[in-house]
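Worked example 2:
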Amino acid sequence: MIIPSRLLFVFAVTLFVSGCSAMVPLHEVRNSYIVNGSLTKDQLKEAIIKGAQTADWLTKDLVGDKILATHRIRDHTVHLEISYTDSFYVTRYKATTGMKMFCTVQDKLKDRNIKISGQQGCLGDRAPMYIDGNYKKWMDSLNAAIQYSLANI
């Protein structure tokens, strides 16, 4: 009887650990050039919004050819600013809620991660150097959805 209990405990711990994501350098899509260079800013904006919605991101228009994109999953929220021209778009980290992160290399070396419960983070509102690995997955998914949307215009 003791052996099955221990096996169950080991199995539960293994599932928990495998569900945790490693920390990765903050991943940002930079200057992702459009396949079709003949798009207008309005077409690019439409493709970004459509792609973001496909990848389960909420969008909000900001002033000056910028879009605020927000992704919520479980207790995590990510906010990005997407700037665009008629030839490329750039995403920039804005804030997170409920994400583990390292603000500096020294924090990572000493394994001093912080979990953000509000929209505060590293000093001076700067982006963290390392963030939960799910952030990269969500960014890759967003970029792929935008690229797909662009290809179908």
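Confidence is low (pLDDT under 50) at residues 7-19. The radius of gyration is 19 Å.
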